[in-house]
Amino acid sequence: MRTYLDHNATTPVRPDVIEAVAHAMRLTGNASSVHADGQAALRLVETARRQVGKALCARAEDVIFTSCGTEALNLALHSAIRAGGAGRILHSAIEHEAVADTAKASGLPVEEIPVTAAGLADLGWLEDRLGHWDPARDGRPVLALMLANNEIGTIQPVAEAAALVREHDGLVVVDAIQAVGKIAVDFAGLGADYMAISAHKFGGPQGVGALIAACNAPLERQLRGGGQEKGRRSGTLNVAGIAGLGLAIEQAVAGLDDFARLADWRDAMAAGLKQAAPDIHIPGEGAPRLPNTLGIAVPGWKGETQVMALDLAGFSVSAGSACSSGKAHGSKIGNATGLDADASRGFLRVSLGWNSTADQADAFVKAWSEAHGRARPEHSNALKAVS
Ligand code: PLP
């Protein structure tokens, strides 16, 4: 039997959500059709829109359904630049490629906000940079910042950063993709113009997401066509996926108190791993973090090799974000938080979720400690740790 500890890559779909998706797939109807079948599909979509708004302290009418989180982030940045007239992009050094690559491709000047050794965007740097912002030279700023980091789970100071950027008439794009369903997210309270979410990170289906765009946020559609989503995002709606997203976000937010308890297992895992490998690094430890996410860095034992060893032992974990695995340059967060290259290449992410158990967390520590003992016997307390 396998143990899935890679919830930040994608989550198992909640059983009720599978039922809701299957129910929606049994209906025939395009949500844009005026006949009764179409209107039945539309009702599912509008229910999901309300569920998203309620879960995130946002207005339902500000929710635009997309095909994934990446599309939502692309739409937000495209809108900020094309309709908002942004002149320069500021994003943290640990943003997901959906932000970093889109910013780079925009052709605008891009500045990276460094992160502290604790894995948090450096607000002091941002304040200083904005202190000598020259609108004539720099244009309108657009800030893109993740609410929670995908690799180590650090919760970024988004509201504070947004307030600083707002003083300069800036626009704010928040990548809340890893945060939703893991901590409470308040769109209105963050002071953001745009916020992206993705269903498969909170127990919903893959391939469906949403952008929340404040009513006064500049918006320019990226996909042209039939004018769905009030002209903001063309394309026939994924009714079943959207229905699943709506129920998943409702259930995930209702379960936040239970989810918070995962922090105890995360910390117990960290303690067990440290006991087995005294020279392990835990980037972000001590900073505000998602309860489910544990990033570790082990000098001299590559993350990819750890993933393979654990895979053989029946555990699914990852060497960083799912989309960057396989790249040999070490973890983004490891490099950005100042770990040396060797430790950064030894990065591993373990992420728990709604159906994880304490036994799985214990079993992981045991399996990792044994594999570590074989790979780095000279640095290992494995025998003591697992006896
Ligand atoms: N942003 C973050 C922080 C993520 O972790 C991910 C997915 O791994 C994405 C964006 C992309 O989301 P999607 O897979 O829905 O395109």
Helix count, per DSSP?
16
Task: Tell me which ligands are bound.
Answer: pyridoxal-5'-phosphate
Structural class: alpha/beta
CATH class of the largest domain: Alpha Beta
Shape: globular
Question: CATH superfamily membership of the largest domain, which one?
Answer: Type I PLP-dependent aspartate aminotransferase-like (Major domain)
Q: What is the third-level CATH name, the topology of the largest domain?
A: Aspartate Aminotransferase, domain 2
Number of strands: 11
Spatial strand order of the main sheet? 2-8-7-6-5-3-4
Catalogue the unreliable spans: none
Number of domains: 2
Radius of gyration: 21 Å
Largest sheet: 7 strands, mixed
User: What average pLDDT do the residues reach?
Assistant: 95
Distance between the termini: 23 Å
Indicate the proportion of strand residues.
5-15%
Helix proportion of residues, in percent? 40-55%
Give the SSE string.
EHHEHEHEHHEHEHEEHHHEHEHHEHH
CATH architecture of the largest domain: 3-Layer(aba) Sandwich
In short:
This protein is of the alpha/beta class.
Descriptive report:
This protein is of the alpha/beta class and about 375 residues long. It has two domains: about 5-10 and about 255-385, Aspartate Aminotransferase, domain 1; about 15-255, Aspartate Aminotransferase, domain 2, CATH 3.40.640. The chain is about 40% helix and about 15% strand. The chain has 16 helices and eleven strands. The protein has helices at about 15-25, 35-55, 70-80, 95-105, 125-130, 135-140, 160-165, 185-190, 240-255, 255-260, 260-275, 305-310, 330-335, 340-345, 360-375, 380-385, and strands at about 5, 65, 85-90, 110-115, 140-145, 170-175, 195-200, 210-215, 295, 315, 345-350. Strands 2-8-7-6-5-3-4 form a seven-stranded mixed sheet, sandwiched between helices. Helix 1 (about 15-25) packs antiparallel against helix 9, helix 3 (about 70-80) packs parallel to helix 4 and helix 5 (about 125-130) runs parallel beside helix 7 (about 160-165). It is globular, with a radius of gyration of 21 Å. The structure holds pyridoxal-5'-phosphate. Belongs to the class-V pyridoxal-phosphate-dependent aminotransferase family. NifS/IscS subfamily. Pfam families: Aminotran_5. Keywords: Aminotransferase, Iron, Iron-sulfur, Metal-binding, Pyridoxal phosphate, Transferase.
